[in-house]
Amino acid sequence: MKPNPNSLDPISLATSTTILVATLTLFATILAAITNIKTITPLLQILYSSMGYNISIIGSLLGAFYVAIDTFILAYLFAWLYNKLL
Question: Is the pTM of this model over 0.85?
Answer without folding.
Answer: no
